[in-house]
Amino acid sequence: MKILLTGATGYIGKRLLPVLIEKGHQVICCVRDKNRFPSEGIYTHPNVSVFEIDFLKEVQSLNSGSRLSEGLIKDIDAAYYLIHSMSSNVKDFGSLEEASAKNFIKLVKQTSVKQIIYLGGITNEEKLSKHLASRKRVEEILSKSGIPLTSIKAGIIVGSGSASFEIIRDLVEKLPVMIAPKWLNTKHQPIAIRNILEYLTGVLLRPDTFNKSFDVGGPDVLSYKEMLLQFAEVRGLKRFIFTVLVMTPRLSSYWLYFVTSTSYMLAINLVNSMKVEVVAKDNRLEKMLGIKPISYKEAVQLAFQKIEQNNVLSSWKDSLVSSYSDNSLLEHIHIPTDGCFLDKREKEIKGSVDKVLDNIWSIGGERGWYYADWLWHIRGFLDKLAGGVGLRRGRTNKTEIHTGDTLDFWRVLAADKQKKRLLLYAEMKLPGEAWLEFKIVERDGKNYLQQTATFRPKGLLGRLYWYSVLPFHYFVFDGMAENVVRDKA
Fold it and tell me: Which of 140, 151, 288, 336 is the most buried (most CB within 10 A)?
């Protein structure tokens, strides 16, 4: 069937798109700016089209003779409404969401759409935050359109990359002891991203879900404090949390802002929502669709398992991996930026680009790491003492690297010579996570090697580790980049 997908480049949309394509649907992705739409991987699939539209602006008529009259969306069967303006503005995000919903309705009412599917928030409490009240208002607008609406309402979505997941991760990994606001005792019903995708696709054109609203949640009802402690348990960390009554919402927002990687505007809206209990009242959709709910701890474990293995599945659902070649996934491997330390080197390539590319593809193993190789061997020896893999694995081929290969104490996440990119993930013992990326880029008629080491620390020990090796990084990484760009490295 033909499906209109709004929010196609957002957190949920990016995960939902490959699932819909896997099921054989034709998907039209709505974006504000075509230039920001990816041009590789799943986005180039023949069943994917892009439709540029800004729902904060007045929608044109499909019969106006404009670009909207090309017939791209007139014959759609269903439409997903996944637009969310929560972090755009502290005061007027509600009016923005209302305007966006109304313009969306103006557009789809000109089509043959048979169903709108909306992902909102659980709103069972009498007193709601501005954010949750806005979500409820959007549902009301969509329900009055005359088009059958299926509303799926959820709370915290547990999956790598979601705002709530990353905030909890920052708090747990940065703070051994937390003096936290009293809203940490608020009850919530988190749900795994996998279950959300199952619900969103399961209701597609099911008449028994038309004009109905469903609360969805996982099997656990937990306070935020319990979620933090269970998260810490999964990560093998011991954490102590004490709640206080004197922390105002503004102080709570500052606390969340300075401790985590969230923006201040998002922190304010999150704090206001975190004071409201979010528990599903009626999860009958679970039985209707035969969905098996994933527990909170299992969802956290799955998220980290994916990050640690190849970092692709934090953005895409399992089925995509088996359906598409590795090369089509390379652009979707996401290196984290929030809460990370970076060492970035850029060197001009004055000789042969192909030779530099060969140097990159020959790194490690017998060839070594191009600078202070003895330090790499010491690091490998220490890793072995700690029970790690050390450098004993080497590499299976002296000049070829493929995605999934082992390379000394690294795992190859991406190896694409055509795109001139190599991405490695650290499998040595570390108080955190580390990536090492090599890319060759062209700028102003010149070629450059971009070498980036990314480290996401785990707690205070991780930060101490980074600063302790920083002097070595200065020489090792700079020397390595300098030697890689030489024709005779």
Answer: 151
